[in-house]
Design goal:
15% strand, flavoprotein, four-stranded antiparallel sheet, NADH Oxidase, Nitroreductase_HadB/RutE, 196 residues, 3-hydroxypropionate dehydrogenase (NADP+) activity, 4 strands, Probable malonic semialdehyde reductase RutE, alpha+beta, single chain, 9 helices
Length: 196
């Protein structure tokens, strides 16, 4: 049985963590990005399918390439963030299943059903995006996930000629708490959950 994490760790990961809109002028190293991935990759996915593919946009040239796809409300904070992660999903993720899930012929589950493959890739890449957020928090970084962007423009700019499709964007860095909005409410257990 696993041990519960400390109350301090719970605050870091959940109750005191915030979505950030402003950033300190502190770089995020490539080594730190590797650490983030090396933590998040252990999060579970269906049949270990691991469909997420990530582009860490961290150069001025990369940000300019991303700029046309951003909504007006997300433009300034994304250009200012040290890193923006494009979380994409590989539409042919199943080609890696003989390596990732050697217990059976999982590849055939998806080659025989394109709809199932797409649903699985999209759902599980979204789960992996959440793991990335928690990996960042565990390493002392802050995040700002976003869906306010033009997916087609991102795909054309970054993934033309590949099997990748964008899912969401996550700004990563060291947040400026002076620019954090007031804490918003969450649904109660009674509003969000049922017991059967």
């Amino acid at each position: 049985m696993s041990e519960a994490i400390t109350p301090t760790a719970m605050k870091t990961l959940f109750t005191e963590a915030r979505t950030h809109n402003g950033w300190q002028e502190m770089p995020v190293s490539d080594e730190t990005l590797r650490e983030i991935y090396d933590l998040m990759k252990w999060g579970p996915t269906s049949a270990n399918c691991s469909p997420a593919r990530i582009v860490f946009v961290r150069t001025p040239e990369g940000k300019e390439k991303l700029r046309p796809s951003l909504s007006s409300g997300n433009l300034a904070k994304t250009l200012a963030a040290p890193v923006t992660a494009i979380i994409a999903w590989d539409s042919e993720f199943y080609e890696r299943l003989p390596e990732l899930f050697p217990h059976g012929d999982a590849r055939s589950w998806f080659t025989s059903s394109p709809a199932l493959a797409e649903e699985t890739a999209f759902r599980n890449s979204a789960m992996q995006a959440a793991y990335l957020i928690f990996a960042c928090r565990a390493l002392g970084l802050d995040t700002g996930p976003m869906s306010g962007f033009d997916r087609q423009k991102v795909d054309e700019a970054f993934f033309t000629g590949t099997t990748l499709k964008s899912n969401l964007l996550i700004n990563i860095g060291y947040g400026d708490f002076s620019k954090v909005y007031g804490r918003l409410p969450r649904l109660s257990f009674e509003d969000a959950c049922g017991l059967v």
